[in-house]
Amino acid sequence: MNRMKDMTKVLLLIMVSLMLMIGCTRDTEGSVTIADQYGLAYAPLQIAKLQQLIEKRVPDAQVNWVQMANTAAIREAMVSGRVDVGFGAIPPFLIGWDHGMDWKIATGLSRSPLGLVTLDPELQSLRDFSAEDRIALPQPGSIQHMLLSMAAEEQLGSADALDTRIITLSHPDGVSALLSGSIQAHFTSPPYLFTELEQPGAHMLVSGTEAFGEPFSFIVGYASRACYDSKQKLYRACIEAVQEAVTFIEEHPGEAAQLLSQVYEMDQELILKYLTAEGMVYDTQVLGIRKFSEFMHSRGYIEEEPRSLEELFWD
Amino acid sequence: MGLDRRRRMSIIITRAGWILSTLLVWQLIVSTRRVSPLILPSLQAIGSSFWSSLITGDLVRYAGVSISLVLAGGLIGTLLAAVLAVAAYQSKFLAGGIDTLTAVAHPLPGIALLPLVILWSGTGITSVLVIIVHSVIWPMTINLRSGFSSVHQRYIDVGRNYGFSRLGIMLHIMIPASWSYMLAGLRIAWARSWRAVISAEMIFGVMGASGGLGWYIFQRRVFMDTAGMYAGIAVLIMIGLVIEDHLFRLLEHKTISRWGGRQ
Amino acid sequence: MSDTLVSMKGLDFSYRTPDGSIRVLDQVDLNVERGEFTCILGRSGCGKSTLLRILAGFEQHSGGSLLIDGTPLTAPSMERIMIFQEFDQLLPWKSVRENLLFPLRKRFPDESAAQLHERSEQALALTGLSQAAGLYPRQLSGGMKQRAALARALALEPKLLLMDEPFASLDLKTRDSLQQLLLRLWRESAATMLFVTHDIQEAILLSDRLYIMDEREQGRLTCYENPLRRPRSHSMEGFKSFALRIARAFD
User: Which of A189, A181, A126, A121 is nearest to A153 (CA)?
Assistant: First the structure.
């Protein structure tokens, strides 16, 4: 019976500490944590960080930047209150929203060329994939997956026609798998997209714009309700900082490339080329959300369809 | 026998006690509604997710894929390890090479090799198998070799007396005599390969029919089905408990306990 | 008429060590007559175990000639079965019965499972182990283990049984009963016995012919005919005086 008592004590202790750990938001009103991912589409955030554009607006603010491997990780960090503002594509946002996450889109960030690249001359359209061919993309439910499904629906008649050929690989693993020939196609974004297209024989089977049919935002910023409600000043500062960074890149691409070449450890000329590449647009406007949510709802990726845009945007 | 059964019962009771109390605490926390169900879903939600995946056969199929991968890789790895250990036992020259190889490869986590494996053997089943074999072969080689060197000369003499060839002695004397080392090696190999296969499936999942449990959990994660994710993890735990607490203990009981300690 | 099974002449043997080789046996001669019970008496470390290991085929001699039944000894064989002093010579992962059946299958490959079973049951019955057939070695006492080793050896019907102090680790009472058992089994089988011991009483009780091994002269053997009638006992006439004679030669 003594053991039972000990056990109860231990369990009570665990319970209390769990409650303390999960229940409280760690950070205070004076700090904001922003999560982004790797890639040129996030370039304005790097500028905002380097030029301290948020600190410029809220001088005593403590700004924490974290880089995460994928949107799923950002989502989890935002659910547990560790991250206030996160950046990623629209489809993972809609999945979170559909599951009851209390978050909305705060700003757009970039449009970007995306595409399904292959090195195989035999492959000229989606119809040419054999059952053994493999298509890599970062994860199911990602924007790359949704774009591939849209293209498959249009060209092959069914959104999941290519799903059994999909394997999930991070962008850099996908590049090496494509180059080594262990996968036949890779749905990716810059700079990986540009690297792959520079290979001899590389060609795009379908581009993001072709698949979507109209311009769409690649990366947007989302903020949690906790951040929006209780950190209005910082929230505003973030949005304005992003706007300023976007304008800076559009107006001074050369200077931006110079700053970014340190961050990405890439040649300045190359960055400039990528920043100004066709289809690479930094813009706080959010495009395509209606079409994404309609498509994802009709294919069962989300259960509910937003009734109005107000459900999805803070302002 | 009676003692062993009692010991196993007591393990089951202790485990059940702790697990049930943990679940109780879990449910208490959930009922305070202070924690988002996206972090801690209720046990009912997990249970119904588990149940619905169970009746559609999904969970069984996913678990089956992972387990059969581990079994296949484990078998290949064990056979290769046996070849290495026998070679090292027969030849001092080869022993040096195998020593070096083991020392270099053993500490490498299988997942660290993934980018290389993708380059060499692509992204199919082969790559997962390569990683499992890697997790199995080195601990098995090390244990088999210490097992062989622990076999008493007298048993080898008995085998020679019966006119067995070197191979016959290997099969009929050395391998059964080092069984306790093999079993210890198998335990390590199981733990390492099970972890490796689940992580590999999470890193490069295959969307088709060939996904395993790791893939199941990853898929639930990217679609934010937290309850389903916990259900998958619960299956992982159950498989681990059954294999550690029961399969290996049973194997040990049927062999080593009967034969009497290490030979 | 003599019928020699083992004929050893001028046998040499050296152990190789990192610091050179150590000569253990030098110019050793030994004859073992078929059907006889031969004992080799020597102190521990005098090389008598080495001699047995050479006869079993486990070690290669470096010089001299060694003929078994007129042919040179080359490799281990089930014609010559060795019984060790140590109790753990039964394979621990097999039951007593399986310990017997395992070599029997190799010895008599043409016989049916039933015939082999018959052989093993018979050997177990002769050694009083019928009840213990299903047990694992770890469940046996030291005496039972040595009985099982004897049963296993005799079931194989070897020409020559090589025994390396098989009873030395047993208590006195068990040793007495095993000595009697061994004599009975010897009488009932056609086996030739070569029995190594450091116990003078044991050597006199068992042997037809007795060799003393001298470690100061690298294993040189001196032969003594045992004059005592069988059955023998420690209290019989002539036992003490023969023992005294051997003891004097032994020192």
Answer: A126
